Task: structure prediction
Amino acid sequence: MKTVVIGCSGHIGSYLVPKFVHAGHKVVGISRGQSKPYKQDPAWREVEQIVLDRSKDTEGDFERKIAALNADVVVDLINFTLDDTKRMVEALKSTNFSHYLFCSSVWAHGKTTNVPILEDQPKYPFGEYGIQKAKSEEYLHSLYRKEGFPETVIMPAQISGPGWLIMTPAANHDLEVFAKISRGEEIAIPNFGMETVHHVHADDVAQVFFNAVTHRNASLGESFHAGSGEAITLLGYAQAIYRYFGHEEKIKLLSWEEWCEYTNNEDYVDRTYGHIVRSGLYSIEKAKRLLEYYPRYTLMETIEESVAYMVENKWFEKQGITLF
Result:
């Protein structure tokens, strides 16, 4: 089976490509050629790697180049707009492909009303990223129902793992939060700390994509969450990291306005808001039932592996941040 993975050297692709190779697929990896895979594996020697940049090709050229590869399976990890989805669909229709897998996001749900959150419940997306993902999902499922277009949508939670700048207990990427905890100092988190985040290891996200291919008949026309099956509150996350570094917790709870003033960084505030306004618990029961998906990593195992990687590889020192 010939399989094309678009975005092969990203965090999901780094784990997914070797799975396909080890399963006997002939894999073509598409990337911009700007970075190496996050995870090294001898399987990469067997991958045909092609450099293409979706953003630099004239309209439709990228998709026509993908279609010209005549793959059986196309995994699209870097499609962010409905227009790109439509162009890909039209290009693939001219080939004998058998399965198109679209990488969406749990952010396509937007502000949800029921938990645990199910893939098929009504969605209320906001923000261009979530809106475009939701529109692509709706478009693809409509095509499956009307024309039998063979598609599957995978919705990852907060992708994490070694080599990735993991979200902190403040729901942003301010490494100083981890550093303060490592030194036993006080941190501040917003509100009551009851909003949730939902880290998932990139290897488990890759497992959902892989299982959707191996369980093709069950996955066609469906959406699946790729998560750990867990969520953790900001307060619980902060407490866990204090324990990880061997310190008693020193956590200050501030109102949203006070926390924004305390943080005094527009980017960090925007990132925190984007995550906590989408608090929830994303069910993986459908993926378990139909795809035999079982996460290898718990949420905390993913977090601890990610933090350990950043410490061991001196990510903090490179940013001029002192640990311990």
